[in-house]
Amino acid sequence: MPFADIIGHDRAKVLLRSAIVQDRLAHAYLFHGDDRIGKRLLAVRLAQALLCETLPADHAPEACGACRACRQVDAHTHPDFMMIEPDREQAHPQIKIELIRNIEHQVIYRPLIGDRKICLIDDADRMTIGAVNALLKTLEEPPDHSLFVLISSRPYVLPATIRSRCQALRLTAPAQTQVEAAVILKRELPPADAHFLAVLSDGQLGRALECNLEQARNSQKEFSIIFSAKGLQSFSTILATAETLAKADRALEAFDWLLRWLRDVLLLAVGAGSDHVLNVDQRTGMQALAERIDIDELLDLISDLEKMERQANRNLNLQMALETILLRVRHLLTPQHQAGASR
Ligand SMILES: [Zn+2]
Q1: Domain check: are 152 and 217 in the same one?
Q2: Residues flanking ion ligand 1, Cβ below 5 Å
Q3: How many domains does the chain have?
Q4: What is the pTM of this model?
């Protein structure tokens, strides 16, 4: 598949294409940017552009995506293409020195088929100190035919000595409209579902393409009932809901959906339009709520929820936290005059 297949990253594509055409590729690149925005895919496409066996006659740097070399790069079986990554099953995934040594040994030899040996190091910030030092030696005197692409969403973790030997390319998430267009094209979904997945994935294309739509829609429906005035009408319902969710280990999921719903209300309350609203189908109800809601109270609730999500791993009593939050949502939903009348 050619570069054109990649959504977004236009600046990076132009830069890499022209470097290939002018034969000015660096020996090492660092593709950095947020998680799951397509850094690795771009690196794979770069490798294919360099190793493709049937490049077009005009020498445009576009891989065919279909020849043996292109397919082998996709399958990580091309003899001139190496990829290493940490074992993500581990509690603390690391790239150990043995992996780098292995690459070091292979990269010295001339490429078997193409003109280059390409080595992709995914999550490069997971290298141990030993691995870093081994790689550094190779990067200091890289063989002419070698190309290293380091990928990282935490480039600041990489030592400056490594970073200074790589040409850094900062990649940013594609625009939400691009993500929606890609979801429509690749998953053949209607625009409403594409919008839903794009917003739900915070613009991360990889997530939007893999997300289980049916499951996400079911959760959306389920939580919209829980967070409705009816779902929150009595204390006993709230306590029961919090208990059920906490016991099913779904408290964090509840926080997440609640946060998204509150952010939707906030977007509508400040008149931001609905481009980034997730629960578009509940728009009428949310708009009515947005018009009578106490914005300060809403902002406090959002910021406390965000804090809770960050602290959730640290001994937070999730059931109690959920009870408290649901009671606050209930207060938020209660029209002020009613609150006054019931006093
Ligand atoms: Zn090809």
Answers
A1: no
A2: 52, 63-64, 67, 70
A3: 2
A4: 0.71
